[in-house]
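Protein in question quoted for reference:
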Amino acid sequence: MRLDRLVVTDFRNIARAELQPAPRLTVLCGANGQGKTNLLEAIWLLTGGKSFRGARDAELIRRGAEFSVLEAQFSADGRDQQARLTVGAKGTQKPGRTVRLNGADRGRAASIAGTFTAVVFDPNHLSLVKGGPEGRRRFLDAALCQLYPGYLAASRRYLRVVAQKNALLKAYDITPGGDVLLETYNEALAGYGSEVMRRRAEYLTRLAPAAEANYRDISRGAETLELRYCPCCEPGSPEHLAAKLREMRSAELRAGFCLTGPHREDLDILIDGQPGKIYGSQGQQRSAVLSMKLAEASVAGEVLGEHPVMLLDDVLSELDDARQTYLLTRIEDKQTFVTTCDSAAFARTNGRLVFVEGGSVKE
């Protein structure tokens, strides 16, 4: 996987910028607030995923403009490809994110998930360790959507039925035929939900050993990382989830919402056998997230047959020299984009320095 050219128009604070990346390392240098992370975000949107910063589509459009345009030339699946992604404001002819791939209109941007793949790290991803389970589920789902196109559809259908079931549970006593409708929803949840759980479990059997090995290398064997999937029941079969839903029926009727399923699962992240959320230092938590992100890239490379593009935002902060050296060694043979306020740390690399100031790009 390789990005060869990117043209950004009316995106965030960028009126127009053209980026010619290096085949390996491209270092985006500049002071805070100049647009470095905006460029990473633009590259990430080419995956078909939503903003990794949690921004709504309207926030991606430069003030005063009606739409943003991202044009990219990249190599994927053994051939050169082109994508044009448009983010339209409400009230325009094409609101939201739409895309053309190799000259063909593909509709919503999510339709090209898995065509251009990337792995992103930004400081907010420390919430993987520090935050609640929703962020950890989002991490798994974002990775799986790029690897398995059918996963996105199963996940969306599952969440749609969860919303329908919650609405029923809130009005259960006044809904004619509520019993039959509840059974129908639970049957659908068991089917879609078991597919989500099976994919997550299979993915973690590959991700966890790689992440744990990465962390061991980063810490030079001084610390350990352990990832443990916490499913609501035995994953892999609709019957297991159906039984769990039957078990929770009375409790859900009392609560008025769905209490079990993959939308309520978690991933335990342990450092030296203790919850990293509670006992991990800032540096340990950052190392844990980096270990997981590097493992995510490795697994993607194994599944897809080509390594995804790496997007690393302010990645060296709070890492000691040894951990910085390890990270720079790991990314030296993959196409990687790194943002920094101080390019000195990259002086020992062969990276191409690109300076970003006021939304403009200069080499």
Q: What stands out?
A: DSSP finds ten helices and 15 strands in the chain. The CA atoms of residues 1 and 76 lie 5 Å apart.
